[in-house]
Design brief:
Helix content: 40-55%
Strand order of the largest sheet: 7-6-5-4-3-2-1-8
Order of helices and strands: HEHEHEHEHEHEHEHEH
Largest sheet: 8 strands, parallel
Number of strands: 8
Number of helices: 9
Length: about 220
């Protein structure tokens, strides 16, 4: 199916989820995850109206950026090695995987202006996933005060792919509660307004539990 057809179905699902929980469609940002697909397929997503694209590897981001450039807002959604920050920092709009002090330090050093970052939280406590444990997040947020070029825009998590709906909702609710706690501190360097959670298999539940940014790959671009 074409990206246009896929996007229409996704938008219908988003509308239903927003209706179920009394939210506005304007609350939701779709990030088209274009890892593993061609530059041409990424361009098709842009032509369909997707303005936010997500990549998880430096090499693929740079390859697509060479052709597409600033016609998309680029989101780095994978684990980012500190030594690669300097190669991508001036090309990305948001980083979804801030999870350690050394990375924050490098972002702060290399960025010419504040960069919006999601702190990655391993809510499900899976060994295979990156991210801070939930109980580590508040202390980590306070450390970010020292880095003027790091802005904590929100929190991000990846839920288990094979979890049932009840467990998924529990994970999303836990991240939302943590986000609310930090947001309500009104820290100028950590407004923490957003929640990056939900992918192709669980974005409808994530929206109902408060997601603001959903990362859609296979359902959108294949």
């Amino acid at each position: 199916m074409s990206v246009v057809e896929n996007l229409e179905k996704i938008k219908q699902n988003i509308a239903e989820s927003c209706y179920n929980c009394g939210r506005s469609l304007d609350d939701i940002t779709i990030i088209g995850v274009t890892k593993y697909v061609s530059v041409e397929r990424a361009q098709e997503a842009i032509d369909a109206g997707i303005v936010n694209l997500g990549e998880n590897r430096k090499e693929e981001l740079l390859e697509k950026y060479e052709t597409i450039g600033s016609r998309a807002n680029w989101h780095f959604i994978g684990s980012l090695q500190s030594r690669k920050v300097k190669e991508v920092i001036d090309k990305i709009t948001m980083i979804h995987s801030l999870d350690r002090k050394s990375l924050a330090k490098e972002i702060n050093k290399r960025a010419s202006a504040p960069v919006s970052c999601f702190i990655q939280v391993n809510v499900s406590q899976e060994e295979s996933k990156h991210g801070l444990a939930p109980e580590e997040v508040e202390d980590f947020v306070h450390l970010m005060e020292s880095y003027e070029n790091v802005k904590v825009a929100g929190l991000m998590t990846m839920a288990p792919h094979d979890a049932d709906d009840e467990r998924l909702r529990g994970i999303f609710r836990q991240l939302r509660a943590l986000r609310d706690k930090i947001r309500d501190k009104h820290l100028p360097y950590a407004p923490c307004e957003y929640l990056s959670m939900g992918m192709s298999n669980d974005y409808r539940l994530a929206i109902e539990e408060g997601a603001t940014h959903i990362r859609i790959g296979s359902s959108l671009v294949g």
